[in-house]
Specification:
With 143 residues, the chain is mostly helical. The protein has one domain: Ferritin (Up-down Bundle), CATH 1.20.1260. The protein has 5 helices and no strands. The protein has helices at residues 3-27, 33-60, 69-74, 87-115, 118-142. The mean pLDDT is 93.
C-alpha cells in the first residue's frame, strides 16, 4: 500500500475522530462536566490543528484531496460513531479512535521512510507523539 493510500486513511480517521470528540465536547454532562468538556476540547483541537497539514502533505505529494464527504469517509479505517450518550462510552470511543489513528500513523511512518518521504516521516512522527499523549490522558480517565 502506498503512502498516498495510507495518508488518505489517516486523514479520514483524523477527521472522524475530530468530529466525534467535538460532538462529545458538546454533549458531555455530569458533575465532572468541566474536566471532560475540556479533555474532549483538547482532543478535537489537536486533531483539527493537524487536519490541514495532513491534507497539505497529500497535496505536496501531488495528489488531490477528495472533494466529497462520502468519498472522504470511505477512506476511514475506524468506524466509531459519535452516538454515545454516557461518559464512559465517549471516553472508550475516543480511546479507540486515537488507537486507530496511532496504528494508521505507524504504518504511514514506516512507508514514508521506505519510500524516501523524509519530510512526511518527520511530520508523522511528531503528530504521533501528540496523539499518543492524548490517548494516555483519555486512557487515564478510564482506569
Amino acid at each position: 500500500m502506498s503512502c498516498q493510500i495510507k495518508l488518505n486513511n489517516l486523514i479520514a480517521d483524523n477527521f472522524l475522530a475530530y468530529f466525534n470528540a467535538h460532538i462529545y465536547h458538546f454533549n458531555v454532562v455530569g458533575p465532572d462536566f468541566v474536566q471532560y468538556h475540556g479533555l474532549f476540547g483538547e482532543v478535537y483541537e489537536y486533531l483539527f490543528e493537524h487536519h490541514d497539514t495532513l491534507n497539505e502533505q497529500l497535496r505536496q505529494m501531488g495528489y488531490k484531496v477528495p472533494n466529497s464527504l462520502k468519498v472522504y469517509m470511505a477512506n476511514c479505517i475506524t468506524n466509531t460513531a459519535a452516538d454515545a450518550t454516557k461518559l464512559k462510552d465517549m471516553l472508550m470511543n475516543t480511546c479507540d479512535d486515537l488507537k486507530s489513528i496511532l496504528e494508521c500513523s505507524q504504518k504511514l511512518y514506516e512507508e514514508a521512510g521506505a519510500e524516501g518521504h523524509g519530510a512526511l516521516e518527520t511530520y508523522i512522527g511528531d503528530y504521533m507523539t501528540g496523539v499518543s499523549k492524548l490517548k494516555w490522558k483519555v486512557d487515564s480517565c478510564l482506569s
